[in-house]
Predict the structure of NifX-associated nitrogen fixation protein.
Amino acid sequence: MSDVLTADAEADAQALQSPFLRALISLIRAQDRFGTWDKKDEGQLLAEYVIDKEKRKLIPIVGDPDPDQLSRLEWFYGAVGLQVESRTGVMASPIMQMSHEGFGRMVVTAGRLVVINKHLRDVHRFGFPSLAKLAAEGAKVVDDAVAWIEKHPDVAKA
Amino acid sequence: MSDVLTADAEADAQALQSPFLRALISLIRAQDRFGTWDKKDEGQLLAEYVIDKEKRKLIPIVGDPDPDQLSRLEWFYGAVGLQVESRTGVMASPIMQMSHEGFGRMVVTAGRLVVINKHLRDVHRFGFPSLAKLAAEGAKVVDDAVAWIEKHPDVAKA
């Protein structure tokens, strides 16, 4: 565990073992085609997802998201898709449409079912107070998506 | 009817009265905030959708779509959404994710239902041999979407 993350280090270390963060980490590692992040440990890989109170104060209220921020958002929902698939056996694909000003829409579909439908704004402020919170939020989104599939399995398999 | 369109002028004139092209025209007019296209008649407004054989031969096989081409694609599916809503009373919203190379995905959702799920490629070649074909293809896509809503009305209203 790197020292980039603090506060409740034990909770964070536990979060790193959660299925959602495992999926997120493997997805990020898979993007690293040139091994640029080989020397980063898992905490460092996810460090930019963590925006604590102090850090958040420094981010302007209004701002345009940069490509790294958009990637983090896409990876988050990509990991959601992976987790949904591993729990239900149904493939779930994210699709995002974003204005350059950082508002837009994220949809995750499974077959003919919309399992996540989220309107996004202030994407340049996307982040979580801690790794534990990131893991918890990811797990919650996955749970919601899985619940939709359980409710309409025929549509999810259509 | 302008002279930008030829071939079967009567079929084209009829097509301009179809519900799909009425929706498409009103959607394009609505984008024209500065009245730039005020003097264009309806045939001219849609002229760029028409790519006949001769015109198609001049388009390279591989190419990146320009913003006008992307707009035409978005208006096409926007008009589909309008028509779906007017026929079913359920709002349908398009969401598009496109690489700069012109492949990607277009999804139209109604409630929790995916009423259109289309993988796009060669967007720089998006067009139809005539206005009549444009109207026919639009109507077909609308029919497909409406059929999905009729099959799963509860999901479309969820």
Remarks:
- Helices of chain A lie at 9-15, 19-31, 42-45, 53-57, 67-88, 131-151, 153-156.
- The mean pLDDT of chain A is 91.
